[in-house]
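Fold it.
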Amino acid sequence: MQSLHSSISNWRRLPLTIADQQTHIVQSERLLAEMSPGDPPVLYWSQADKLGLVLGYSQKQGILNPLINDAAGSFRHIPIYHRRAGGTAVLVGPNLLSLDVILPADSPLVLSDIVKSYQWLGEAWVEALRHLGIETRTVPPDEAHELRKLLKQEETREREAILRRACYGSLSPYELVVGQRKVVGLDMIRRRNASLLQAGVLLHWETETLAQLLGHNSQEQAILREGLLERAVGIDTLAGRVITPQEVIGTFEQIIFSPLT
């Protein structure tokens, strides 16, 4: 962590903002667009004030349950958003705490190796969660690569494709896991002027809503409902207690800004 602290000084820390998810998407884009070389990096904490589904850049509305698309399902009141970052569908709301880290292009934390650029953030989260009594690890790139082979194997291809409709149904390099269950997800937007690293912390994990939104029939919904419980876990379950967003934020910022860590 010592090399990390030498890269972190004079950062702007924005307080937790609870608002409509579209507000957060617009704010992230604005912070990224306005960043220039030499500017201080920014931490932006956010939570959606109500449930919503955010689709990844490559996903289309058709990924949803057709009944949802026709506004005929029991979850039709849940708004759908689109983000510029990669990855797949994320359920936002009170159970997810999000962090945007906006770095100018000349930051020493912006590496030419895009995958490696996630490492410092993943390791910082491991340390922060350890201080909260939760032991996690980051996913090595080769492990994430091996898991992608499940999409090519005949016996696992169909189930894997269904589970990967949800972001927390798959693993990417340097994301945080306990065993094989994801706790903190990561993604990135990189532009010439700056990079945006995003982390999503599962405060609580439930799969029924995602199963209803992403499962096209009862069989797919059962796969999502049960399979996603094997793929992710909330920090409340791991700690055996409710952990507030403020506690997470305070611990994470203490870890990355304290030179004694």
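The two ends are 7 Å apart (CA to CA).
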